[in-house]
TrEMBL record:
NADP-dependent oxidoreductase domain location: 16-218
Pfam families: Aldo_ket_red (PF00248)
Stated name of the protein: NADP-dependent oxidoreductase domain-containing protein
Catalytic site: Y59 (proton donor)
Organism: Eleusine coracana subsp. coracana
Amino acid sequence: MAESFVLNTGARIPSVGLGVWQIKPEAVSDVIYAAVKVFPDCPHALLAGYRHIDCAAAYSNEKEVGLALKKLFEDGVVKREDMFITSKLWAANHAPEDVLEGIDNSLKDLQLDFLDLYLIHGPIRIKKGTTMSPENLIRTDIPATWGAMEKLYDSGKARAIGVSNFTCNKLEDLFAVARVPPAVNQVECHPVWQQDKLRKLCQLKGVHLSAFSPLGSPGSPGLNGPSVLSNPVIVSVAEKLQKTPAQVRLPRAEVAVHPNSGYNTLEDLWDGEI
Ligand SMILES: NC(=O)c1ccc[n+]([C@@H]2O[C@H](COP(=O)([O-])OP(=O)(O)OC[C@H]3O[C@@H](n4cnc5c(N)ncnc54)[C@H](OP(=O)(O)O)[C@@H]3O)[C@@H](O)[C@H]2O)c1
């Protein structure tokens, strides 16, 4: 598997990222530190840790992610330029005048001067200051929101801009008005939902399709779709290779095992043969 992909900005995005959705604020700093740092005394540590962290204002843990990043930089574990940090504009900040506030809050919490990638979290908008529920939904104005995203790109606060959860139609609509084309569309994509049509469109338009929920997000509340881990093809490949379905499915990441992770060795987590 490629280590990175080239975006339409010319920048490289590491092919494997660590998403921090649903990681509790009190745990996320340790998770990030352990995922990025290579512990030299760990016999299973490989040469590189994660370099790509996928955050969002909506995950309510950016302050704690920021603390981990600051410590990693201060400890000399990695340099800012070696990390690829993504965040996302939440649905309550779609008004053009609120987009700058959205990125500024994320930058402040993450303790960064710029993001490598800033995404519109989804083509859905709620009234400012409200929570996600049907009565708070208001009509989106993606051209206006995108115009404000383009200003962030121009200013350098976001080195690439993109979208998330955009269908083919939404992406086509965006292309019709965009001065700066989206660099990324981050969508759910795995063997049970392969996004063939969207992938072809993204390829055609030079948009990097970034796949989230590689395991189909088992256990997430409200998600009752077909399970990746019990998919017959995945199960039969796993049986053939004598692996678990998750081992078959996940891309191979270069990781070290943190002593508090619940895994005793890297082999417990990943045997590295697939
Ligand atoms: N842009 C968006 O709208 C959006 C939406 C969703 C996700 N994302 C991004 O994608 C990232 C990953 O999403 P996700 O959490 O849905 O990913 P996922 O990997 O599909 O699902 C994670 C779930 O898989 C379980 N799991 C992990 N390893 C397993 C194994 N070996 N066997 C069985 N189950 C296993 C985890 O359980 P435990 O917790 O018990 O380990 C957790 O419940 C997020 O953090 C976020 O950055 C973006």
